[in-house]
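Before a colleague's protein record goes any further, I have to sign it off. I want your independent view on whether this chain really folds as the tokens say. The record follows directly below this note.
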Amino acid sequence: MNHMDPSTMVFFTLKDLKIGETMPIYFRKRDPSAYPQALPREEADSIPFSLKQLPYLLQFFSFSDDSPLAKAMEGTLNHCEVPPIEGETKICATSLESMLDFVHGTFGLETKFQVLSTKFLAKSATIFQNYTILQVPKPMVAPKMVACHIMPYPYAIFYCHSQMTENKLFGVSLGGDNGDRVEAVAVCHMDTSHWSRDHASFRVLGIEPGSSHVCHFFQADNIVYIPAPTYHD
């Protein structure tokens, strides 16, 4: 565990999800102004978005082939072109409009939805520290869920995915050793049988695909969509 990449320290299992439990967690802390700009759909659609177009894109954005930005673009395009696993739908949305189209396509056009994210109530500069669960974790009703992650790219790319298999969603109040207070969103994926053996969670938890569920905390720049609860008389 001491030799793990700290950025992978977001995984846990349901048995850890109890008041008073302490675990090391990585929460990155970025200045919102450092995020890439979201483009309007019309502009985003006019720019190619594929790995085979990478040489053109590097020229378009004036990046040298061996620059860190070029490597980041290549990594994002590679990630976006990996086929979904069984029971998963995914998209790399190049605009906010296409992200919302994916959400509507997953939940149904008429379904209202809620937007969830991890929030810092108090934070230090420390990105990796021990956190203690301060209150009983709060289960959320989420028959379906779409999670979106901002990818490294010259403009905003949202990697969004949804799994048909069972997920359990929680709100978790955390207190950090350095005084951080976090209202975190966490999910437990109950079926990992189709996940790649290379998934970081298996190394962190010391388990095999399909042998256990996997839970993780969402970073503050992730967006989680769930259908809004409906109330009946």
Notes: The mean pLDDT is 93. Residues 68-81 form the longest helix (14 residues). The chain has five helices and 13 strands.
